[in-house]
Fold this protein.
Amino acid sequence: MKNIIVYGSRFGQFYLEALKRMKGIKIVGLLAKGSDRSYECARYYNIPLYTSLDEVEERVDVACVAVKTGALGGEGANIAKQLLRKGINVLLEQPVHYKELGECYKIAQNQKVYFGVGNLYLNLPAVQNFIRNVHIVSKTEKIAYINVDLATQVSYPVISILGEVLQTLRPWENVGSICGHVPFQTETVKIGDIPISFRAHNEIEKENIDGFLHMLFRISVGFAGGQLTLFDPDGPVIWNPRIHFPDENIIPGRLEFHSPLNMDEQNSFILYSSEKKQKMIFKDEWPCAIAKDIEKTVVEPTEPTLQYIQRILNNSHAWQLLMKGLGYPEIVSGSFYSYYPSEKLLRESTSLFEKSSALLGGMAVFNNMCLKTMYYYLQQNIKEVNKGYTSDELIERIGVKADFVPIIHRWLHVLNSNSYIRNEEKEYYFEKKMHYSELEKIWVDGKNVWENANLGTISTYEYFKNNALKLNYIMKGELNPTLLLFPEGQMYVADDLYSKTPISSYYNQMISDYVKSECELREGCRLLELGGGTASTAKPIIEKIKFLSVEEYFFSDISDFFVNRAKELFSGIRFIEYLKIDINNDFVSDKIKEDSVDIVIAVGVLNNAKNIEVTLKNIKKVLKKDGKVIIVEAIGESVQMLISQAFMMQEPDDARAEKNETFLKLYQWHELFQKVGFAVEKSLPTIDSELCVYNQKVFVLSCQLEDKYSGSK
């Protein structure tokens, strides 16, 4: 049990609310000046009120100092230094001048205690989503500009967020400022070659210093392909693709059938949306975010690295430079606040802001269950939390079979990306220990979520559960994961997985409808299905085309078991032929000639190819010039697959091997299709569909033909 005291009641009450919900701690009191607010706060939380640390009789392990620092004319930093000298761990609320920060870190190191800066904004889900998405786009596109609107009262958190986005705020070059007797003042700086424009509300109401805010902050990061915007600390986060007119002489008339891919995008995508009421943000969101900072101070705190300290100091120095450029805030009086009900506004269309889906919520919970499963197995054999472990150390402790080592590296990457662990200087840190009983409880409780959200059959849930609870044996090579997908040689689990989840039902329906429409247009249609497997896709297709003019439907798989089972299922269908095909080899044979197939179907197959580009070229070789290819594939890493079928897949030797990825990302698929000579006719589900949560796409491809109008491909 850790004893914690809180300094200051104005913002300290948010710390008290956070502490009230935490386990393993005891609030020993509130230390303040004795104002009416302090007395009321102490009574509400049923804790003693002190005006001096000497009055506190109980041991104090941690102090949360929510008192203004010297930068704002307060004593917060001095209080923190006194506490550190007494051997007490301290969490000091921002903002803090870089000189005061340096002094606090130095004292903490000498006294061998923990010192940290509280900054709830960095822990808010919307902010975390924004930072992650900036990093995702930055991997392939350079940041062109950053625009920031802010109230100067929250300028320190804004600078901290920019520090996370850019990784460094040096060199800081002041380009110019526009300051005057107006509510918003402007300052432009350059960090390296990235221009950043700040538009700051730099006024203070002398009767209401903390309450006079036109806004908190809004940050937009621009790229060659679009703009990513955090509209508010609590969201939404929106991506706006950049407007780029096609290189065509006739634009409106030709976009229906000749539009480039960017013209098929929506004009905005909501990447994070929170529909919480404002009172819930103060009541729940902020205390939860503060609790994350407190946990770093309470749960076996470790000394921060010199690199981390330097980054915090650099951020604070950048904050000083920003505020110096903007100048002192203007003191105003007579301002007033007026509540205007949102329901009085004219609302003419619905949007993604309004989407509420049990499917989305259920998948979010299920994905977190999978992430927690990975977390458990990685930390099961470590002795200390908040100590750095290399990937080799973790893999050795688990005893992973050599074939599966790349999968564990993917686990580490996805857990770090989702903030379950942190990676510093090639070492991974775990914040808490997790026991097998907790893992079991997660998968027992998760069944209700699965059923309520209609995520699939119970057999499918039990399949993932069995994988999750038996991963120790799978990772070590002591249990063949195929036995879980086909228990005792039975097909019911695989059948349900590939035909009775929302996404599989969607794409099987969509594909069968599309194939039917194509067969109706073609006389003597010839189809080739690669990797037919359980026939989950073939069954609805055959049902819809069995009375049409179909010449041949080649059902193929590398497994004799699946081919023989298909022969039993479709024994009465005249036009079906059965082939054993390895997708890593050329398909051309006596039965399948070059340029002879109208439609090629490959559902969840290409990810099993050693080299997807080679397989696509082989598909194109047998496809007629006016033929179609229907592909279903994951677009990006799937956490469900990482605890299950990833252990059944062979390692690739293409771009996935270079980046140690299970699946290609969406942009990689498009680049590959273009490279091989395919045009993307359809890419479904669309971004506004709730089914996008599955991270799977149905691609309909055609061969690129010479454009008779523009001469381009």
